[in-house]
Amino acid sequence: MNHDFDVISAARNWRTDAAATATPSDIVTGVYASDVLTLEQLRARLSKPTFKSIQATLERGATLDPSIADTVALAMKTWAMEKGATHYTHWFHPLTGATAEKHDSFVSPDGDGAAIATFSGKELIQAEPDASSFPSGGLRATFEARGYTAWDSSSPAFIMRHANGATLCIPTAFASWTGEALDTKTPLLRSVEALNKAVTPALKLFGASEGTRVGSTLGAEQEYFLIAEEYFYRRPDLVMTGRTLFGAQPPRGQELEDHYFGAIPDRVLSFMTDAETQLYALGIPVKTRHNEVAPGQFEIAPIFEDSNIAADHQQLTMQVLRNTARKYGLVALLHEKPFAGVNGSGKHCNWSMATNKGENLLEPGDTPHENMQFLFFTSAVIKAVDEHQDLLRISVASASNDHRLGANEAPPAIISIFLGSELSEIFDRLESGQGGRGTEAGLLGLGTSVLPPLPRHAGDRNRTSPFAFTGNKFEFRAAGSSQSISFPITVLNTIVADAVTALTAELQAKLEAGGDLNAALADIVKATYSAHKRIVFNGDGYSDEWHQEAEKDRGLLNLRTTLDAVEHLTDEKNAALFAKFGVLSDRELAARQEIMYDIYFKTVNIEGETTEYMARTMILPAAVKYLGDLRAAGAGRAVTAISGEVEAAADALYDAVQSLSEQNAATGGDEVHDKAHHMRDHVLPAMSAVRTAADALEKVVAEQHWPLPTYRQMLFVK
């Protein structure tokens, strides 16, 4: 059977009734945020006092008034039912890294044989999902099932549509009966408040008006792969683990560098348009789409939003990409490294700080060398990243991201900051006492009068840096494509809050001693940069020389694997930091460490068992069948030899996986830390050995006998 022909035929006939039909004017005037309960929608449906109460919570951080809950719930229910919703759900972010929802109907029997639509303020503010089946890291025992979801009024409710209706989704936090956070949203909200409390005192010294609030902003670029749906279901490794555990390199990969920013295939472009229309309706400001570096790889990127809403929107983006791809006979792969030997996928988090009046605190302006407010907050970020390299690395640590970090398409595991030539020179001149501005931007002439001269930035970009200044924000490029961005944002907010608090105290002390504001700022910026400039690196982050320099000469951390990083999460300095700002208690922090170990162990264990299963039930039988043909022709020695290698490697992998169970049975131990280390040190190498032999076998077995779709098919058939 020619599966390639079937897939190609499907690609030519992908169009369905579900394809998006909105016109560009529809998107601008009628689609954007049409499925979001916006402030304007609330204003039209609530009395003026009730709306002002909600507005005070959203814009000034005032405590939510429970007395208005019934009124808001009625308005929310009416709006949702007008949109076609029959059910509602408290939509939350448990510590799985995904989202969760339990749907309840608006319909309730009235006791007279009929039904009415109800939704109370109590149901809006609080629900009680079973907390026992979500990861808690020891915060909850299995028999302790009670947990609460609490309405997050700072993130708007929205409608999620499906083929037969729609559901009202209410963003919520998730906590245990004892009040401890069981989710990623609660610490993020706490960190936003910590940043506000740290930065507003500094802004007052710069003359900010009363009522100014500060939050973080974020725009998360999402990379992903698309493959034909049929190929996906014929690959047990993709179905079970999200990545290919086998696959020989095709003759052509990304060597020609012709896919990046290339013309987008028609079926893919139609999928993108459909997905974007849905995202627009959810109020997600997607801006950019393009082919990425690897064949079959793509990217979608929004403009910045408040970080809490950006985290919600990022989860929705992943969900919409996955769901929409299926309508076009495709599957969206969000794993960090679905194909060995080609580019992996990241999620670049563009982070900044802004006031409620729209001022970006990391905007350098036309004269950054004279903009002391900008230099003050930038130096705080430099201090924060240097002092908390470990936390930034931990925030992106996972078994899947280990396949990407440090490879020649992603930032290394060593955390450093790229400032660019202009900003580096400004800080260097301040440190030396020269001051002023060095590098000028100017215009870039292109050598022909047909083309206009282009404004040239004073500094280049650096795609190898994990933390790069990119004009008016920092781009944290180490986050993995499948992960929730909530924890990286939480870490960024908290470490910068800590640095700003320390620098503000220094500044206040100098001013109270009679110092001049500008002189005091210059002293603080100079001293801060001098103390932390080891973290600044503008060169090639992929080079061996940088790894040697970073560790030996600069003393920077190189936490190569997830387990190297995670063991530092509960270090004394980190526990003290999170406790100081009320972001995570000691118990909440320890729970997250336990969950990270547990998820690492389970991820690799699933991969190990899947590898052995595929080797024994698919790859070896295919080789045996092909050997029958070869032996009939008096050949087959090479296949026999490699098949023996596959079988021996599969036996060794089985032993590596089983030895952990036998060890636990003998010692009575079941420490998740030990199990995770066993997976890294024994199972992953055994999996690699099976793959090496199997990939060699793929190159000598006839194509009609090979049971798995190949890289050539998955990456290039669209």
TrEMBL record:
One of its GO terms (biological process) is glutamine biosynthetic process. Residues 184-619 form the GS catalytic domain. SUPFAM superfamilies: Glutamine synthetase/guanido kinase (SSF55931). It holds the Pfam family Gln-synt_C. One of its GO terms (molecular function) is glutamine synthetase activity. Residues 86-179 form the GS beta-grasp domain. InterPro entries: Gln-synt_C, Gln_synt_N, Gln_synth/guanido_kin_cat_dom, Gln_synth_cat_dom, Gln_synth_gly_rich_site, GS_Type-3, GSIII_N. Belongs to the glutamine synthetase family. This is Glutamine synthetase type III. It comes from Deinococcus arboris.
